Amino acid sequence: MHKVEIPEYVIDRIMAKRGKREVFDHFEPEKTALLVIDMQNFYVAEVDTAKGIVPNINRLADAVRRVGAKVYWVVMTVADSLEAPSKWSLYHDYFFTEAKGKNHKDGLTEGTEKHELYPELDVREGDEHAHKTRFSPFVQGSSDLHDRLQAQGIENLIVVGTATNMCSESTARDAMMLDYKVVMVIDANAARYDEDHLVGLTSFYQSFGDVRTTEEAIAMLRK
After folding, report:
1. d(CA 71, CA 75)
2. How many helices (H) and strands (E) does the chain have?
C-alpha cells in the first residue's frame, strides 16, 4: 500500500477554491455504489501496491453491503477469446510493441486466468459485475454501467482499484462529468509508483471530487 499524503499545495488550492476540504459529507446508501476497478490478476498479481489494497477494498465492500449499497466489480475485457480481435485495436496497434500488445490483449481476454478477479478479493453472491473495453466504463460504448446505475437510482460513487492514475482516475473523472458525486479512496487505490498514485489523486481532487481514506468513506455511508 502507498504511504503518501496529499501535498500541502494541493490542499491550499482546494481550500481557496471550495473553502473546505470535502464537498460531500455523507452518501445515502440506497443511492450509492462502490466501483472496484480492474482488480484482476493481470494488474494485481505481481504488483505489491495493488495487492496491498485488497484488505481495504474488502472492508469497504463489506461496509457497503451492510448498509444496502451496491458493490460493482468492474473489469477490463479487450477480447472475447484468444482468437478474437482486440476490441480496442488503436490502443494495441499503436501504444505497445507487438509482443507487449499481444500480452495485454491475451491477459485481458475473457475466460483466461489473468482476466479473473484477484482471488483474495471478497466477492459475494449478489454483487454486480461489469465489463469495460476502455480505461473508463463511462466512455460511450465501453460498457453498460451508466445505464445500470441510472436504473438503480445511483447518484454517489466510491471508486477504488488500480491503477490510480489510469483506469481509476479516468472512471472517477468521467463519472463526475455525468453528474455523479464521486469519492476516490486514497488507501484503496494503487499504482506501481507513489508518484503515479499521487498524480492521479491530486488532479482528481482539485476539480472532480473528494479523496478520502477507507475509514472516512465507510463513515460517509449513513442515512
Report:
1. 13
2. 10, 6
- Burial (CB count <10 Å: 0-12, 13-18, 19+), residue 27: buried
Of the candidates 127, 124, 116, 122, the residue with the CA atom closest to the CA atom of residue 33: 127
d(CA 105, CA 202): 30
Burial of 148 (0-12, 13-18, 19+ CB in 10 A): middle
pLDDT, one tens digit per residue, over 46-89 is 999 999 999 999 999 999 999 999 999 999 999 999 999 999 99
Neighbours of 153 (CB within 10 A): 9
Question: Catalytic residue numbers?
Answer: 38, 132, 167
Segment 131-135 shows an average pLDDT of 98
